[in-house]
């Protein structure tokens, strides 16, 4: 099976997946050439999101009520990850020296344990706050309107 992950990037080439892998995930996984992250996150079967903790992915995830596993690398990710995990409680951080058994443990914790359920409740709360802020009379909408008025004056 050959899958093109992103046909606009010269850095991403065709990836050849072994038939054994394709057979192993049959019925429980999907390999797609390109998909919209927001649509995936809004699908009812998604219980968690492994992300690098970039701001756009974080916003899209909590706007979809999906708790996150963060595996950050650089730039804003090193700020977003600890803040959203510790202050907001909407994700869990993967150790920099990542090991497969630790990732499995975190996935199980996120999906089954009490603190995973608390993380899910927190992300639902943040979704509500985001909806309030972006509503017609919300703080973000008013702030944007004020900025536009100022720039036009």
In short:
The chain has 153 residues and is mainly alpha-helical. It has helices at 19-25, 37-41, 55-63, 77-88, 100-112, 114-133, 139-152, and strands at 2-4, 14-16, 49-51, 68-70, 91-93.
Characterise the protein shown here.
The protein has helices spanning 19-25, 37-41, 55-63, 77-88, 100-112, 114-133, 139-152, and strands at 2-4, 14-16, 49-51, 68-70, 91-93. Helix content is 52%, strand content 10%. The protein has seven helices and five strands. It has two domains: 1-34, no CATH class; 44-129, Glycogen Phosphorylase B (Rossmann fold).
Name the features:
UDP_glucos_trans; 2 domains; two-stranded antiparallel sheet; quercetin 3-O-glucosyltransferase activity; transferase; 52% helix; Rossmann fold; 3-stranded parallel beta sheet; 153 residues
Gyration radius from CA atoms, angstroms: 18 Å
CATH class of the largest domain: Alpha Beta
Placed side by side, the strands forming the largest sheet appear as 3-4-5
Mean of residue pLDDT values: 85
**Secondary-structure element order, as H and E?**
EEHHEHEHEHHH
**What is the global morphology?**
globular
Low-confidence stretches: 1-7
Just name the CATH architecture of the largest domain: 3-Layer(aba) Sandwich
Regarding quaternary structure, what we see is: single chain
Query: Share of helix among residues?
Result: 40-55%
Strand content: 5-15%
Q: Give the count of structural domains.
A: 2
Q: If helices are DSSP runs of H or I spanning 4 or more residues, what is the number of helices? A: 7
In CATH terms, what is the fold-level topology of the largest domain?
Rossmann fold
Classify the secondary structure makeup into a structural class: mainly alpha
């Amino acid at each position: 099976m050959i899958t093109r992950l992103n046909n606009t990037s010269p850095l991403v080439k065709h990836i050849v997946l072994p038939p054994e892998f394709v057979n192993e995930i049959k019925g429980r996984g999907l390999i797609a050439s390109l998909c919209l992250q927001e649509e995936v996150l809004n699908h009812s079967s998604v219980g968690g999101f492994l992300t690098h903790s970039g701001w756009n992915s974080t916003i899209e995830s909590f706007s979809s009520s999906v708790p996150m596993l963060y595996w950050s690398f650089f730039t804003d990710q090193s700020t977003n990850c600890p803040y959203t995990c510790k202050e907001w409680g909407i994700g869990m951080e993967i150790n920099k020296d990542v090991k497969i058994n630790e990732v499995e443990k975190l996935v199980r914790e996120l999906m089954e344990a009490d603190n995973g359920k608390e993380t899910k409740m927190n992300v639902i709360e943040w979704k509500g706050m985001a909806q309030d802020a972006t509503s017609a009379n919300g703080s973000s909408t008013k702030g944007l309107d004020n900025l536009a008025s100022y720039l036009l004056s």
